[in-house]
Amino acid sequence: MTFTNRQKVSLNSIASGDCIEVMRSLPWASVDFILTDPPYLVNYRDRSGRSVANDGNDGAWLKPAFRQMHRVLRPDSLCVSFYGWNKVDLFMDAWKSAGFSVVGHIVFRKRYGSNARFLSYRHESAYLLAKGRPPLPGSPVPDVLDWEYSGNRLHPTQKPVQPLKTLIEAFTKPGDVVLDPFCGSGSTLVAAHELGRQFIGIELDEQHHRTASSRLAQREAA
Q1: Which of 10, 46, 53, 88 has the largest CB neighbor count within 10 A?
Q2: What is the residue-wise DSSP string for 171-216?
Q3: Are 16 and 60 in contact (CB under 8 A)?
Q4: What is the pTM (predicted TM-score) of this model?
Q5: Longest dimension (CA), the chain
Q6: What is the mean pLDDT of the chain?
């Protein structure tokens, strides 16, 4: 299937460009689940100097991006969004302004400290957001999941595949379409592919788009 309004976007592929513009080319209610890791609005830079596109503090893209996510998500479906804990007010405002309801909070437990200030940072977190009234799962997954260190070799904030698989398996069925508008190195898309789900990825940074595309091509050829 190919969506052709403003930009060609195919299932099981990664579009290169601004996710707001790309999502405008997707029909209403065309995806079944969203799992995404947007920039945290913290001007992040890792030890080697790598940064994340659009990670500035103003977050002007935040509300329009989540409005588009809400539009393309099927009614009575779910979205999982990571967020910057010290910018939670901006994220929460964007989610609720788009029409999402907050229905859960997920903590990803680390065995190591990724940074330290007043506290040693030993977790990542995400909110579970609902469009409409999704049915309750028969066997809910825990809201605390283990986190494996990815090494951040492919991306400065690379997420491990296994906990993403846990969420995709819990909230979708085989053949469903999983969207990640900020796909980075493609971890969400790898997880979806390994579970027999269809996917759409979007990435603004050209280098990360190439990395994610190559990663998926290798998986599909295996």
Answers
A1: 53
A2: H--TT-EEEETT-TT-HHHHHHHHTT-EEEEEESSHHHHHHHHHHH
A3: no
A4: 0.93
A5: 50
A6: 92
Among residues 163, 155, 83, the alpha carbon closest in space to that of 125 is found at 83
Residue with tokens 């935040």: 62
Give the number of other CB atoms < 10 A from CB of residue 138. 5
Residue 210 is which amino acid? R
Neighbour tally for 3: CB within 10 Å: 19
Q: Examine the pLDDT at 93 and tell me if it is beyond 50.
A: yes
* Structural contact between residues 24 and 3, judged by C-beta atoms closer than 8 angstroms: no
Number of domains in the chain: 1
pLDDT digits (tens, 9 = 90+) for 49-62: 777 887 787 889 99
Tokens of 149: 């260190």
- Domain harbouring 142, CATH code: 3.40.50.150
Q: Which amino acid is at 220?
A: E
The 8-class DSSP code of residue 222 comes to -
Residue 28, Cβ neighbours under 10 Å: how many?
Answer: 9
Domain that holds residue 18: 2-221
Neighbours of 195 (CB within 10 A): 18
